[in-house]
Structures are given as structure tokens and as C-alpha cells.
């Protein structure tokens, strides 16, 4: 397992950051090359399942996840249940008054994990802009 933990400050309060983060259908607007959909449950609670395809055209991989913790507007944890990506992930939103901080943490067994980190960092920078304008974005 490899630990990946990245942070970004967001010019939006925690409640808006949480809403933007957990709008799974729109995650592709800020997450590089990724489309997310809810495959079981409503996407807003423990037991919900998500499927994230990352790639270009038909070339890529699918990361399936099951939500294991749901504590709005502060924490969402998942188990990665796919064949390629295994481990756990967590989104933490830290309130900072009118601003917030998003912490993206993963403990995963993933080929080329170090190559994954720059893409996630760029995606988090894009997320900060997306959340600032959310829901209009």
C-alpha cells in the first residue's frame, strides 16, 4: 500500500465545498479524465457504490468504490473494490470560516501510484475553482 495525501485550500465554506465534492455526476468537470457515476444507493450515505472511469476514450480503467463513512460536511471514506485499485480513500473537509481545506487521502495498491499524484494535485487545483463557483460552475 502507498499513502497519498494532498491538500488544497478552497475559497468557499465547508458546506459548499462538501456539496461540490460529493456531486458525483459533476466530478468529471474537475477530476482529470474521470467520469463518476453512482451504481448503488443514492450516493449520499454509507453503502452507496460508485464507479469512476479514468482514461481517454476506451483506454483507461474503472475504479469501483463503496462508501464506508458519510459525515457531511466533513468526511467521506471509501473502500476501493476494483481489480486494479485496492485500498481505502478519504475526503476530509476542514472548515476555515469563509474558506475550507480539502484533504484527499488514499492508502492504495495502484500501479504507478507516484505518477498518479501529479494528476490528483492538478485536479484539486481545478476543484478549488469549481467549488468556489458551485453550484453555478
UniProtKB/TrEMBL annotation:
<protein>
    <submittedName>
        <fullName>SRPBCC family protein</fullName>
    </submittedName>
</protein>
<dbReference type="InterPro" id="IPR019587">
    <property type="entry name" value="Polyketide_cyclase/dehydratase"/>
</dbReference>
<dbReference type="Pfam" id="PF10604">
    <property type="entry name" value="Polyketide_cyc2"/>
</dbReference>
<dbReference type="InterPro" id="IPR023393">
    <property type="entry name" value="START-like_dom_sf"/>
</dbReference>
